[in-house]
Specification:
This protein is of the alpha/beta class. It contains ten helices and twelve strands. It has a single domain, classed as Rossmann fold (3-Layer(aba) Sandwich). An eight-stranded mixed β-sheet has the order 5-6-2-7-1-8-9-12, with helices on both faces. Strands 3-4 form a two-stranded antiparallel ribbon.
């Protein structure tokens, strides 16, 4: 019994040390927002990437932490073609895209796109906290955390580990099955003490070339869910082939097709989100050493091969000194 007690105390001490390290790593970040969905396939990562691009175009400093360990897609959607690297013995430098967005994902040091992450619950939670504590973000106005769908280990680890989390943005589609599951995500966020900043409805409608608008999955379902759950409705994103094209190209649609309906919708949502947050002052970060941005990322460069092409993609591996637990 005494041994069990000692193990428990040691575990608590390690957790307190890790929490302190996370707070230290994020002390220069003004607003920290998690992006969550109840189910997969609603376009949560694409929403995260384009919100980040819209905020960056407003002159703000933005980073994205990809907390989806099993299906990390942020590097692909940002066109990132290089690895994250250690700075010294502990700090991990996020990759900076050509447009200036900083990003960190397990995909940036994993051995190839085809290699699955097969980790259990506690391993995933420890890895997320380790990455949070090691990331050298520097000064940021916004850190967006792209969570995997559902309310499992990774979302719980993020919502419980990030100090002074400003809130959660929920992404849904109009189908009843999605809105129903998203209501669970809203309640889970509240249970964990996270403020729900609002809801985005993706795939809300389709406007054809003739100008007619069709609501393929139902009209105003997102607005109805937001009203029922008493949370702000941030806006709707239409169905747009340009949205998918931009994601495959590795450039946010906000940058690649600035005049499109989808780009304008994300800009409006980003402006609404930024306006509703209260003023905040954080510690001033020391000057950052100049570093070259990731080649080909964040901009449209047709002469560069895409992220998924074999010629452009090297086999990533965990950087030396970074202890990622890959066992049981």
């Amino acid at each position: 019994m005494e041994l069990d007690r000692k193990e428990f105390v040691d575990r608590q001490k390690r957790q307190l040390m890790m929490d302190g390290s996370i707070a230290d790593a994020l002390k220069y970040v003004k607003y920290k927002i998690a992006i969550l969905s109840g189910k997969g396939g609603v376009g949560k990562t694409a929403a995260t990437v384009n919100l980040a691009a819209a905020l960056k175009n407003m002159g703000l400093r933005v980073g994205i932490f990809d907390a989806d360990l099993h299906g990390p897609s942020v590097p692909k959607m940002l066109g990132i073609k290089q690895e994250a690297k250690l700075d010294g013995a502990f700090w991990l430098n996020p990759v900076t895209t050509r447009s200036g967005i900083k990003a960190l994902s397990v995909a940036l040091f994993w051995p190839g796109d085809m290699t699955p992450v097969m980790w259990r619950g506690q391993t995933k939670s420890r890895t997320i906290r380790q990455l949070l504590s090691a990331a050298k973000w520097g000064a940021l106005d916004f850190l967006l955390v792209d969570l995997p769908p559902g309310t499992g280990d990774e979302p719980i680890a993020i919502l419980k580990s990030i100090p002074d989390l400003d809130g959660v943005v929920i992404v849904t589609t109009p189908q009843e099955v999605s809105t129903l599951v998203c209501s669970k995500a809203i309640n889970a966020s509240r249970t964990l003490g996270a403020k729900v900043l609002g809801l985005i409805e993706n795939m809300s409608s389709y406007t054809c070339g003739c100008g007619d608008t069709v609501y393929l999955f139902g009209k105003d379902k997102g607005k109805q869910l937001a009203k029922m759950m008493e949370i702000p409705f941030l806006g709707s994103i239409p169905i747009d082939p340009l949205f998918s094209e931009a994601a495959d190209t590795g450039v946010p649609v906000v940058d690649l097709h600035q005049g499109s309906l989808t780009a304008r919708a994300f800009v409006e949502i980003a402006e609404t989100l930024a306006k509703q947050l209260p003023p905040k002052v954080v510690a001033e970060a020391p000057p950052e050493a100049a570093s070259a941005p990731c080649p080909g990322s964040g901009c449209h460069h047709p002469h560069h091969p895409r992220h998924g092409d074999a010629a452009a993609h090297s086999h990533h591996h965990p950087p030396a000194g970074m202890t990622i637990i890959t066992g049981k």
